[in-house]
Amino acid sequence: MKDELDYLIQRVCNSKKKKKFDEEAGWKKVQARNFHKKRRSVILLWSGYAACTLIILGCILFVNDLSGPQFPTPLAHNESQHPSLPAKVELTLANGKSIDLEDINDLLEEELGISITRDSIHNQLTYRNNEVHQDSIEIRYNRLVVPRGADFSFELPDGTFIVLNSESVLRFPVQFSVTDRTVYLEGEAYFEVSKNENVPFKIITKEREITVLGTKFNISSYSDDPNWSTTLVEGKVSISDNGELRILEPSEQYIVNKRTGKAEVKQVDVTLHTSWLNGKLHFKDTRLEDITRKLERWYDFTFIYQEEDVKDFKFRGVIDKDRSLKETLSLLEGTKVIRFEIKDHIITILKK
pTM for this one? Predict the structure, then answer.
């Protein structure tokens, strides 16, 4: 885990789809989806039976990259290998102005008293305000949208560092007041909150509210996920859930089953829940439906199941998000229990 962050980063790894394509063209498309030139190893095991199937591609690097979150490195525009124009990470300012953060270099919005500047050497974006703090100031919110196939990291004016995962939205104030630091999250994000004992930092999701003074943690609050969770890496957080207050210690996770409403606090390996920061998807006896839901957000395809029980097949291992979708599907097919058929933008999962 990094104890200090001396940079502000923008990383956009994403994809656009063509409006029409046949099956052959679809496979050519997913085969072309390599997000970086460097190929890495993947290990995947199918946990459906007592004897698991082990798939190895290239050299084995199962544990080495899981020591802690390594934040996205700066990505120059010409390093992307997308065959089509990338999807846009977009910031809508409180005054209604929309900004494509991929293309912007310098912006001064005098009406809101903010500036966004890119460091041309390190390809880093910095968001700053004029820091005029008044109790009576009107709180106006910006809206940051990260689409499928992308992630985005940046630092708020108070020093809080945030990484937004694919298909996530963050609403944050143009300027924090002297008594309040509140943001609103849809989707998933990792936070390293700048410590301020006088002004707690709050993250509000649709279901719950998290309050911290200064800490590192991950929140997963996708509306289509079966569970809502907060995983604490460092420090301490309090979670307000239907009038009940829960306190988390490091390496604890608060998880809620949305269907039943059952909530529990459990000890977890935090690297399992922050591996996406390393550009990886790490699974441990994870249902196939939960895996494909993550793949949908990253590769921007839709999975359907020919038989419902296939959703409950369990796998374990690491999938590198830098690999093409076809490579990832081939890896899963290598377990000899499932296969895939692709047509247009739909991938059907069948038993072998």
Answer: 0.75
Phi/psi of residue 302, each to 5°?
-115, 130
- Interior/surface letters 65-99, b for 16+ CB within 10 angstroms, e for the rest: bbebbbbbebbeeeebebeeebbbbebebbeeeeb
Helix axes 288-299, 325-333, angle to 10 degrees: 160
**DSSP β-ladder status, 346-351 and 302-305:** parallel
CB-hemisphere CA count at 13 Å for 352? 10
Residue 345 backbone zone (phi > 0: left; psi -120 to 50: alpha; other: beta): alpha
* Cα–Cα distance for residue pair 204/210, rounded to 1 Å: 6
Place of tokens 């498309």: 29
Helix, strand, or coil here: 174?
A: coil
All domains of the chain, ordered by start, with CATH? 23-351 (2.60.120.1440)
φ, ψ (nearest 5 deg) of residue 288: -60, -35
Six-digit token pair at 169? 């939205």
Residue-wise pLDDT tens digits, 20-57: 334 454 444 444 443 333 333 334 455 443 333 333 33
